[in-house]
Amino acid sequence: MNILDEEKEIVKYDKSKVASSIDYLPRQLGRAWAEVLKIKLPLSYAKCQQIVFCGMGGSNLASELVRSIYGAEIKKPFILVRNYNLPALVNKNTLVIISSYSGNTEESISCLKQAKDKKAKIFCLASGGKIITLARKNKLPFYKINTKYNPSGQPRYGLGSQLGAALAFFSNLKIIKVNNQEVANAVEYLEIFNKKINSYSPSTDNWAKNLARKLSGHLPILIAAEFLSANAHILANQINESAKNLAFSYLIPELNHHLMEGLSLPPAAAKKIKVLFFNARGYSQPIAKRFLITQKVLKKQQINFIDYLIRGESKLLAGLEILLLGSWLSFYLAVLNKKDPGQIPWVDFFKKKLEN
């Protein structure tokens, strides 16, 4: 029996409706884009000197995707904060985005209060909670995420909404160039791709299911570069949280300066490693060459690897393809590991202890 093709087995472990959330990813993207485009922002926001995006875990992944995909055209410093405190450089000319899917993340609330004290230009992104309450109280512009298309309630599976909101927000301010047609094409591309890799698609033609089986029982090392850098980090997070499976992400060219020397020891770990390369035709020539040579090194070291070639032709489509593929991949790994992908017992335990 192929567990990934048995609906009863999928439902058995997916008590939190994660599969439904992943199916909705294209709709999440399209809806949030359309809704945030309608938000009127103060003209001064476009004149900011730097951008600081604050969020924890899944709530700061959309910003990483934007910076990764559009980094070459963003002309202002773009800083990601995953902590309680804002950088000292934040002032009245800084645009601070506060992102918390729940709206109650204490690190993000701390940054919001600091941004207000520093008279920064503030935008809030949450599904509710204290952050939306504070935004309303202080008359700050905000977007309240619609949770309808994320029945799992997990931030990492609401990334379509967060990304759609971020794309529209930065497009409104002319910080990045993306338009309605590009987003509409992206939504259509995701919908078509989703039919090929969702839980109803059999393993014979399902890349995500086949990748999950190949990675099952192994320690995945995820490798990407340039405009796909964020995707490797996002997938590592999803595999850790959803599949309860240790995974690491590394970037080329940085890994060429250290990682290759550390793959052989300890022997028990080396035998469990399986490397997944996210390869793209859009990579620069020096990066493409490094991918080839890195794979030759792994062959010599007898390290197993998979080379996945992205089909998406633009940077945005490539990033979205891996986002959707990775969401399903982490889901299927969870099922193979006989875990509920929507439950995060140790994170929940930790948060409860913090409240005491």
- What is the chain-wise order of helices and strands? HHHEHEEHEHEHHHEHEHEHEHH
DSSP summary: helix tally: 14
Task: Output the strand order for the largest sheet.
Answer: 2-1-3-4-5
Provide the low-confidence segments as ranges.
none
Give the CA-based shape.
Answer: globular
CATH class of the largest domain: Alpha Beta
The percent of residues in helical segments reads: 40-55%
Q: At CATH's second level, what is the architecture of the largest domain?
A: 3-Layer(aba) Sandwich
Class by SSE composition: alpha/beta
Number of strands: 9
Kindly, what is the distance between the CA atoms of the first and last residues, rounded to a whole number of angstroms?
A: 46 Å
Largest sheet features = 5 strands, parallel
Strand content: 5-15%
Radius of gyration, Cα only, in angstroms?
A: 20 Å
* CATH topological fold name of the largest domain: Rossmann fold
Characterization of the model:
With 356 residues, the chain is of the alpha/beta class. The chain has two domains: 7-178, Glucose-6-phosphate isomerase like protein, domain 1 (Rossmann fold, 3-Layer(aba) Sandwich); 201-336, Glucose-6-phosphate isomerase like protein, domain 1 (Rossmann fold). Helices cover 47% and strands 14% of the residues. It is built from 14 helices and nine strands. The strands form two sheets. A five-stranded parallel sheet has the order 2-1-3-4-5, sandwiched between helices. It has a four-stranded parallel sheet with strand order 7-6-8-9. Strand 3, helix 5 and strand 4 (121-126) form a beta-alpha-beta unit. The chain is globular and about 55 Å long. The protein starts with 6 loop residues before the first helix and ends with a helix.
